[in-house]
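Q: Structure tokens for this one, please.
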Amino acid sequence: MCAYSIYFGSTEVVISRTIPAPHYHIVECDTYKAISRAKLLKKVETYKYIAIITPDVERTFSLLASEFKVVRAAGGVLQNELGEMLFIELRNHWDLPKGHIESGESSRSAALREVEEETGICGEIIGDSPIITTWHAYDTYGEWELKSTDWWQMRRLRGELTAQHEEGITTARWFTSEELAEALKTSYPTIIRVIDALYNKM
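A: Here is the predicted structure, written as tokens:
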């Protein structure tokens, strides 16, 4: 892989061989010693964009990931017959339906299940591989987790919108392409990245 982007809230940490853009704070790592989680978290407190520059991206990522509990998730970017896109409102942010992959479950199956559970819409996956896989790090009751989420492109088959309120979802709704830009203003950097990847694919 050419690069990894890990999000700590709204802060993006890129692991790459080259500097992604001038505004990134640079951390240089050699092949055998990566930056520790503790040192990285200190930098996350100060900088919004961080680039870890290394000659071996995979090894540097693996060393850093070993300091987290890695969890896997899957979600869907689902469109209906009119080309509208399905979003959920969670914690006052517009988000895409997603959830953890259960034991013995494939990424594809988990994405379809989570979309239907969270929105009431049964979908069908388009394509043989995810649009993108995002990485998000967060502290859960004192334990740092690193979540990988596979995002699958989908189309609507059937169902009516029903928000899964017990999961804290306030509402589920369709957005036209014109409405989407406004919705993304109250979304997360990872979600914006997913939508950009979808449009690049299309």
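A few notes: DSSP finds five helices and twelve strands in the chain. The radius of gyration is 18 Å.
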